[in-house]
Design a protein that fits this description.
Elements (H helix, E strand, L loop, with lengths): L1 H15 L3 H56 L10 E11 L2 E4 L5 E6 L6 E2 L4 E5 L2 H36 L5 H34 L1 E3 L4 E6 L6 E2 L15 E4 L4 E8 L11 E6 L7 E8 L9 E8 L11 E7 L2
Antiparallel strand pairs: 1-10, 1-14, 2-9, 3-5, 3-8, 4-7, 5-6, 7-9, 10-13, 11-12, 11-14, 12-13
Helix pairs in contact: 3-4
Length: 329
Amino acid sequence: MISEMSETTENSLAKLRIAPEKKARRTSGPVVVIVLVVGVLVVGLAVFALTRSADRKPIATHASAATAATAATTLVPAPPPKPGESVLTVSGYIIPRERIEISPRFMGTVKWIGVKKGDDVKKGDVMVLLEDDEYRARVMEMEGRLALAEANLTNAEINLKRQIELSKNDVESVRSLDDAQRARDAAVAEMKIARGQLALAQTYLDWCTIHAPITGTILEKLVDPNELVVPQSFGGTRGPSTALVSLADLNDLQVEIDLNEADTPKVHMKQRCRVSPEAYTGKKYDGYVAEIAPEANRSKGTLQVKVQVENPDRFLTPELTARVDFFAD
């Protein structure tokens, strides 16, 4: 019975033992896996290196081709523009050639203003009246002084003639004759002074009536009756203005352009142009370069150019945008 138990125990232990071939297979398993992983990594790095090398070669070839094409383009000169062909198109603003701001010559009060925005006026028309009571009184005062000076001059001349006759008969001394001549000369000087004062007073009185200096259109009415005005104006839109009215001749218009400095070689004086207002695309006007500024604007990098519009009409409104085509000669 003991022998049977020993056999049974040995059989159980035999089942629990690991076969030698299985032990060898398990021992070699991790080594094989490590070798396989290393091989995969090596192959992957080789493929990555080859791919990067292939990617770099086409880029270098493309850059070389682009450089060669640029060099070839630079060497070939552009054909010159044909006569009458547009060489440049730029946008600008329509402006009057002359915009006049009318200010009073002295501080005063507006008595009457007879124009409003948009009115057409002719040269010499009365537009504004300033209060002139003070200056009328001054004129009357100066007229009285002139009359007094004329009376004194007449009396001095009569006295001088009398002294001349008496000196011939030796009745009066030479000294009396000299005094008479001096009095006559003083009377002449007083009369000139009186005439000058009268002219000055009359000038101020005339300045109370403000006339239109040109034939044109009222662009702005800047005052109303009973307002106090002073003689200070910076003109147009360049700063504060105490002007009475502003006007311009709308039959004398230009297009003001800020030309990029790179385009200045394409523009010259008297160059023919075509003006097209943005508001009326079907309208075309002939023009020419009338003014090129003598200096550029450093901050903008531009040069101001003005194009004179030939035969403008009511469709060209100041301060609107217009496109200008510059033509080759």
